[in-house]
Amino acid sequence: MSEERRKIMRVLSGETLTPPPLWLMRQAGRYLPEYRETRTRAGSFLELCYTPEYAVEVTLQPIRRYGFDAAILFSDILVIPDALKRNVRYTEGHGPEMDPIDETGIRALNGEGVVEYLAPVMETVRRLRGELPEETTLLGFCGAPWTVATYMIAGHGTSDQAPARLFAYRHPKAFEHLLMLLADISADYLLAQIDAGADAVQIFDSWAGVLGETEFEAFAVKPVARIIASIKARRPQARIIAFAKGAGYLLKTYRQKTGADAIGLDWSVPLAFARELQQDGPVQGNLDPMRVVAGGKALSDGIDNILQQLGHGPLIFNLGHGITPQADPSNVAALVERVRGWKG
Ligand SMILES: Cc1c2[nH]c(c1CCC(=O)O)Cc1[nH]c(c(CCC(=O)O)c1C)Cc1[nH]c(c(CCC(=O)O)c1C)Cc1[nH]c(c(C)c1CCC(=O)O)C2
Questions:
Q1: Of 84, 126, 162, 260, which residue is the least packed, with the fewest Cβ within 10 Å?
Q2: Annotated pathway, please (predicted)?
């Protein structure tokens, strides 16, 4: 089957499909009992990411259950800091942690060997393309430099990324160097995923929403534009989704400035504004993940609203952020059924 038959690839090229194709951010994860089982077997979270046999298995789990139109490679955005020897660890109940980096540490960073270190991820992609149904799009991904940098500087997740914002004001040169280094590494990493068989890739800028206007340009737009330009210069056919969570009105020029084919929308984006953004190309989103937890009318009303307002243009139906561990798998089945049953 040619790539053009894959629905998500068709929408990424600008087609409107009725019903829209769908996948969910974090579709492989703790809400699924089979994920928890494999996770326990793997031992550590990084072991799960770096063992192709396990990573392939958990990537396929939501495809088997729900037949989503895309599978997303199972990995994490923090494998890049791990490859940069930042001592990344995931401890139960703490979220990810790593050694916080300072100016001296940034100057000492060396991006060589990162893609080689991440060879197991590319092996996972290769095996996935062989095992997935022909019609299923395979998505690769990475974190955007700003979001990855927030974890590298604080050494852990924070609610407002104050440590990274402060560091950027105090040490603008070192911070710029960090972002550009991460951009160049990320471009090579995504290119390697594409060459291993990923149909398209998504760049997650989960923390774009804490940035002011000037900083959004410098820390979110500029590095993501650099990644996309670098990939497209080498693989002009590559398709790229950029997701800047919380960017609000700043999304108005985000697609055009970054060169992304599609833009991801979180649930705070008003649907009238989303429709405006859709005039320039495909959008992806944007159901509140809590509607999936709530189920029932909250779920069906939220889905219907998005379909009615965005379903007549190029849309990839998705959540506005990752599905949460407390979501009931049967609500996900109801979501899929409702989207698939939409007649336009
Ligand atoms: C910021 C970020 C991270 N990782 C990611 C982001 C960007 C998207 C977002 O904002 O959610 C992206 C990510 N992380 C994971 C995927 C896998 C693919 C998929 O979407 O199914 C993807 C695309 C697996 C994961 N990554 C992580 C888990 C849970 C860990 C576990 O199983 O113990 C999964 C399934 C761990 C992780 N990894 C990260 C955090 C903050 C955490 C802890 C929070 C949590 O526990 O949910 C960093």
A1: 162
A2: Porphyrin-containing compound metabolism; protoporphyrin-IX biosynthesis; coproporphyrinogen-III from 5-aminolevulinate: step 4/4
